[in-house]
Write a structure and sequence with these properties.
GO cellular component, one term: cytoplasmic microtubule
Largest sheet: none
Order of helices and strands: HHHHHHH
Low-confidence stretches: none
Number of helices: 7
Protein name: TGRM2 protein
GO molecular function, one term: microtubule binding
Structural class: mainly alpha
Helix content: over 70%
Number of strands: 0
Organism: Chionis minor (Black-faced sheathbill)
Number of domains: 1
Length: 107
């Protein structure tokens, strides 16, 4: 629908912003969409997670940590829909295990 398309455009815009606060807002918006309309996220999982995975490797530690913590909350909501992006997700999360930042490592 037009409303779903507008939601996704806004989500992409925030997740790819040059401003770290906007990227953090995008991560939270994705979580809200997972709660309110998981089917829309599931139907567009590859396109959304192509951008979200970049936040799991964000150069800003606050964005990176928030994305990791948010991912942990999204996994039970999206379950089987994550199969097409699972390999990329595991790779991105695994890279964070070497982080010297305690918040990122813990997340």
């Amino acid at each position: 629908s037009v409303e779903e398309t507008e939601q996704l455009v806004e989500l992409y815009k925030l997740l790819t912003s040059k401003e770290f606060r906007a990227r953090m807002e995008g991560v939270m918006l994705l979580l809200n969409h997972c709660k309110s309309s998981p089917q829309v996220i599931s139907n567009n999982i590859v396109q959304i997670f192509d951008v979200f995975i970049l936040r799991l490797q964000d150069c800003n530690k606050k964005v990176n940590q928030q994305a990791l913590e948010t991912l942990a909350l999204m996994i039970p909501m999206l379950r089987g829909a994550l199969h097409p992006v699972l390999f990329s997700l595991v790779s991105a999360v695994t890279e964070n295990l070497n982080s010297k930042h305690l918040g990122i490592y813990a997340a």
